[in-house]
Design goal:
By secondary structure, chain A is an alpha/beta fold. Chain A is about 35% helix and about 20% strand. Chain B is about 60% helix and about 0% strand. The chains are: A alpha/beta, B mainly alpha.
């Protein structure tokens, strides 16, 4: 029996590329490397315009806080360093490197001098950090930080290869073509975390990959392959943990809080590459698909390659593109620019024509069919959340659990009334988060006051409760004058 | 921004080897411009093909066999009643939306479904103006005045039926026996055409099992409204809707089970207990109500447990009216009463949130 969770639904999976071998993209003439490809602090470029850089050389360093470095994915000359509008609306500094075509690898890239059995946890964390590895499933959380935060807390290592998003087959192909590297990556992570067991979770629409893994794992009882039911969003951390362990991850907590740590299959591959070959994260597997692509393919691509190079390699466009998505169609991010670069989180590039927006012009009206409620993996009532959000009744939306929403998009996908449910929910979540942040800031400010000025604690609490700006502000002035 | 775009475009153009090769090929057709304006919206970027319209068309398909039987059993006059009801429902909706300067949404077919249900709830002897008033009440008063599709709190077709029953009880309760023909366009029906005899529901009220034979009644050879008589075809329609996942099993099953249980435990006629149970289910408008009326999306609970509760409530009230009420049939009022409780049932049966209640960010 395939493992699964309650809720969710099968989305037409369009895995057109399931039989497409991973091809290596010819080196692009130009790569544009954003200095922020992960959650956390932005990197600061450590090269100058005109510098010659080698493949694998560090070009962006994190100066403080959470983050991981960015490496040159080709050898060549730094052509420009400039701010570019990223898909999320932020301006991000990009280092643009002109490829010299020599593929000169930085000489410092060497296999780690110790045998895997002798490497310590700290060393692995340091290798992973220096290699700039961040989660490659899409959320791009720096992997070294994940290992650090999981140390000593977790008992279960789960490798996420559910790949429940339609279209994407990058992980599937990786498991088929390079299972040994992934398995070795898992072993390295197990060693780092001091764990004796690991599970690789694969949806049952990838039976060939499951067989392949099992062949490689014959006689080994430390890594097991778990067959998951093909259902969206099976690859969501919460649903995965529930399916495997029967534990519901409480809202606002991390997998480590229930003793689990989850890595994407490609992340494991990158970890293996970093430890075994010293190679930092400078390329990744990308599925190129969508109804505008002539021949959908899986490609091994240097980071920073503009989308259009990949599209052209796949035979170019066969219809006028209307939407370009970075990642899966259910949770990926629409791009405004066909020149946007592949980043560490780009698992797929999907190019859709206007045919994809068939229902775009239909009127929006909830008919209360209940599909959103039936399919919500978080067991919410999305129709009411949408109604409250539309009316800006944020309190009621919060009572109905809007903050538990994982924004998987199942509700919007299914809605016959064309209500953009998850979009409404995002609006409300953003609003509530902003309010909370303001409250916390006010609270922190008033706490500082109490620390600085001899105000009785009860008064400070009431000040914190009132929260709205004027009072703390005036106190602030007093404090600074003192 | 445009400058930057040009910058990157200019930089990339000589770079990509494949681009010049691909572009002429693309230009052969409609000159694909890879740099044309793109839609940037938040996920999800794909959409299931289901629409309100596809669901409503499924409901129409599911209702059709029963309508055809009604026409076969009660003669061509039923056709005109059904057609008038459908046309008027669609017309009133379009007219209302036109007058109120709203987007006209009759193409979603929901008005057609309502109209058809209004027609199916009429006896074939009803005057031809009855469906016009019924459609007006259902569409304008019950549906549009409360905000249109999905916002009405009562089932429009049933509310119309209730209104017509209260306003013109004689016209609405004079159910003819099947296979007594009346001309298609006759405005009023000659009373000679109606074979005066008690309807099955009237007999059941007194504890008498109708002598039509259970199988005949299952097939639809019994007195009643146009659409309610053919239990078998209504069940077939319900199965179609279940297979197409338009409805879930919860309401029909819990509704029918409640009615069956009560009539089994407290039969009006203890001697023929099982026959009595069968008649309670087959005879009146229960099957039409349970499968098509009580499963109307807008006016029923949205959670699975809520739907079970709703079905049980409908069953209890139906049997209460059938046993103790002034009417022979209780389906209409049972469903309407339960309609008004939907918000409370939804609240009562809120699903347990995955991961429990959030800790409010503390």
């Amino acid at each position: 029996m395939a493992l699964t969770f309650r809720g969710g639904m099968h989305v037409d999976d369009h895995k057109n590329t399931r039989r497409c071998k991973i091809e290596t993209l010819p080196p692009p003439a130009l790569v544009s490397l954003p200095m922020s490809q992960h959650i956390g602090a932005h990197c600061v470029p450590c090269v100058k315009v005109g510098d010659t850089v080698l493949k694998g050389q560090v070009i962006g360093q994190v100066e403080s806080g959470l983050g991981c470095p960015v490496h040159a994915s080709v050898s060549g000359r730094v052509k420009a360093i400039k701010e570019i509008n990223a898909a999320n609306g932020m301006k991000i500094v990009n280092v643009i490197i002109e490829n010299d075509g020599c593929n000169t690898i930085d000489p410092s890239i060497q296999p780690y001098p110790k045998r895997i059995q002798d490497i310590t946890t700290e060393e692995i964390i340091e290798i992973v950090r220096r290699a700039g590895i961040s989660g490659m499933g899409g959320a791009t959380f720096p992997t070294y930080a994940k290992i650090q935060s999981a140390l000593g807390k977790v008992q279960h290592l789960i490798v996420n290869c559910a790949e429940c998003e339609p279209y994407i087959t990058a992980n599937h192909r990786l498991l088929l073509e390079n299972p040994a590297a992934v398995i070795n990556g898992v072993k390295i992570l197990m060693r780092a975390l001091g764990l004796r067991k690991a599970e690789i979770a694969v949806e049952d629409n990838k039976l060939d990959a499951i067989n392949k893994l099992e062949q490689h794992l014959v006689g080994s009882d430390i890594i097991s392959v778990k067959v998951m039911k093909t259902k969206y969003p099976q690859g969501d951390e919460r649903q995965l943990i529930y399916a495997l362990k029967g534990v519901e991850l409480p809202t606002g907590q991390l997998p480590a809080d229930v003793g689990c740590v989850i890595f994407n299959a490609e992340t494991c591959y990158a970890v293996f590459d970093a430890v075994a070959h010293g190679m930092p994260l400078i390329e990744r597997t990308v599925t190129v698909d969508g109804d505008c692509i002539k021949t959908p393919k899986n490609l091994r691509v240097p980071l920073g390659t503009p989308y259009i190079d990949l599209i052209n390699y796949c035979g170019g466009l066969r219809a006028q593109p209307k939407k370009i998505v970075n990642g899966g169609p259910m949770m990926g991010m629409a791009q405004w620019d066909i020149e946007a670069p592949v980043t560490k989180g780009t698992s797929a590039i999907l190019v859709f024509s206007e045919k994809n927006d068939l229902h775009y012009n239909l009127p929006e009206a909830c008919i209360r069919c209940g599909r959103c409620v039936k399919n919500c993996p978080m067991h919410l009532m999305p129709n009411y959340l949408a109604t409250f959000s539309k009316a800006e009744h944020f309190d009621e939306a919060e009572q109905f659990g809007v903050m538990s929403c994982v924004e998987c998009g199942t509700c919007s996908y299914n809605c016959p009334g064309q209500v953009p449910i998850v979009q409404y929910i995002r609006k409300t979540k953003t609003h509530i988060n902003n309010v909370r942040r303001a409250q916390q800031a006010a609270l922190a400010a008033s706490k500082k006051e109490t620390a600085a000025a001899p105000v009785p604690p009860a008064a400070s609490v009431s000040a914190a409760k009132e929260m709205q700006a004027p009072e703390p502000k005036s106190e602030n002035k007093e404090a600074s004058s003192k | 921004m445009t400058d930057k775009e040009k910058d990157t475009a200019a930089a990339a153009a000589p770079a990509s080897d494949a681009a010049p090769a691909a572009e002429p090929a693309a230009k052969e057709k409609k000159a694909i411009d890879p740099h044309a304006m793109l839609t940037v919206s938040t996920s999800p970027h794909i959409k299931s093909p289901d629409t309100t319209r596809s669901i409503m068309i499924d409901v129409l398909i599911a209702l059709l066999p029963s309508c055809i039987w009604g026409v076969y059993a009660f003669g061509p006059r039923s056709v005109s009643l059904l057609l008038i009801a459908v046309i008027c429902a669609v017309g009133f909706e379009a007219l209302y939306q036109f007058i109120m300067k709203k987007r006209i949404t009759v193409t979603d077919c929901s008005a057609a479904v309502t109209g058809l249900l209004v027609g199916m709830n009429l006896p074939s002897t009803a005057p031809l103006w009855i469906p016009i008033i019924g459609a007006f009440f259902a569409i304008v008063v019950v549906k549009q005045l409360y905000g249109g599709i999905g916002k009405n709190f009562m089932n429009p077709a049933l509310a119309a039926r209730a209104f017509l029953m209260l306003a013109w009880p004689n016209a609405m309760t004079a159910s003819p026996q099947p296979f007594t023909t009346s001309s298609m366009f006759s405005v009023s029906v000659d009373s000679a055409d109606i074979v005066a005899s008690a309807t099955p529901m009237q007999l059941l009220k007194t504890g008498t099992i109708p002598d039509n034979g259970i199988f005949n009644m299952l097939l639809g050879a019994k007195a009643g409204t146009i659409g309610e008589v053919s239990t078998l075809l209504l069940i077939a329609g319900g199965i179609y809707l279940l297979v197409r996942r338009v409805i879930t099993w919860h309401i029909p099953v819990s509704y029918l089970a409640t009615v069956a249980l009560i009539s089994y435990l407290f039969p009006q006629n203890a001697a023929e207990r099982l026959e009595f149970v069968a008649c309670e289910i087959i005879c009146g408008g229960l099957m039409l109500g349970a499968v098509f009326m009580a499963t109307d999306y807008a006016t029923t609970p949205i959670t699975a447990n809520g739907r079970l509760l709703f079905g049980v409530g409908c069953g209890l009230i139906t049997m209460f009216i059938r046993y103790f009420g002034g009417y022979n049939e209780g389906v209409t009022f049972a469903i309407l009463i339960m309609n008004t409780l939907v918000w409370y049932i939804d609240n009562l049966t809120k699903p347990k949130r995955f991961g429990g209640v959030p800790n409010n960010g503390k």
